[in-house]
Amino acid sequence: MPQHYIVCQGNPSDIGSKHGSLLKSAIEHNVENFWTACKAVRIGKQTLIQEAQMLAQDYTDVLVKEIRAIAKATNLDFGELLAFNLCHGRIFPDECSVMFAMGDASASGKTLFAKNSDKIGGQSLEGPGFYKHKEINVALVVRDDDGRVIVGVSSAGSTGLKMGVNNLGMATGTNIARTVELGEKTIDTTQMRALDRVQLAREGLQMENALDAGNDIASRVAANPTATPGNIEFVDSTNGVIVEGSYDRVAVQIVKSGIASRANSFVVLKDLNDPSDVSSHCRYVRSQQFLKEHSGQLTPDLMKQLTQDHENGPGPNSLCRHGQHYEEETSQSSMVVELDGENPKKTSFWIALGKPCHAWRDPDGFIQGTLDQLDQIPEGFFNGEVWKRFWTEEANTETA
Known about the structure:
The protein is of the alpha+beta class. It has helices at 12-22, 24-40, 45-55, 61-74, 78-86, 88-91, 180-184, 197-204, 210-223, 278-293, 300-307, 356-359, 380-383, 385-390, and strands at 3-4, 8-10, 97-101, 111-119, 130-131, 134-135, 138-144, 149-154, 163-166, 170-176, 230-235, 240-245, 250-255, 259-262, 330-339, 348-353, 366-370, 377-378. Helix content is 33%, strand content 23%. The strands form 4 sheets. Strands 2-7-8-9-10-11-12-13 form an 8-stranded mixed sheet. Strands 14-3-4-15-16-17 form a 6-stranded antiparallel sheet. Helix 1 runs parallel beside helix 4 (61-74) and helix 3 (45-55) crosses helix 5. It is globular, with a radius of gyration of 19 Å. It starts with a strand and ends in a 10-residue tail after the last helix.
């Protein structure tokens, strides 16, 4: 596989231009399929564009400039790309399992963070931008003019992050919460300025630390809730901050020691959870069990093992999620981070694209690096080829 060091670097316009030019074809297909999915659920294009234009007021100018530059580089309509970014969560909600361990729970004394990104599929998700009815995951590397470096997982054309880490030593992740309101669809999000969690995660990484990021995002979600209830996690060497947000309430949990995790449900706002959601309960209980069992001895390798865990499965109830039908919520990618509090730029990360139980077990399925010395990254992590190779619903049940 050819090796390239690909990074979006510079001011917001430079970053967006590089992003757009590198991934033009994939972005075009992702946006096309986004609108196909919108049509399938009878959401009009102009309605969503108008909603996105209104939502843009709730994000930084930096984000909007970056999206505008991506649109210019790909010759796509700015309004359409804005809607793809700011309304993406309404059409493709982020599932996922997030786990972390503060320094006293790890073997090295460094905070550990891990996430599996899970997604539903759909009949409308067809074409080169998708594979077997699922959205392709890609790696994203960004370096801005202020020296901030962000590495994570996204989809081509999206400025948001499914999960990521910056060179100040802060990691982030997001996941939907399956509440009774969501299940009954009693809330019309078209009547509110509904924010997008993956964009909030990206903007949170512009803050100095997890506490600042959590406080800022919690206040924004309190003013304008996200399109679906859910969690946003920010973790550094001192604090783990979990923001739980529903349509009419917000809760913040601060974790200074020990372990924490979230599946697709709330812990603080647990009274809102849908009692029929078996998967979230199983994954939360299993993650807590594993983390507590290994508390004080947790390592990056053990966190990778956890992301491949098939307890209660392999299937929709295991942390490494598998399904029989493309509309099931299954695991698409994974990330593990070891945060270096004394020298944040030495923070280490590992990214696996595709099904975790396959990608982690093949040297071509994952990358690793530190925030100060990003090794050359195979082009396949940016154009979707690695994801295509290692995504499957077939479970790898061999001993890891």
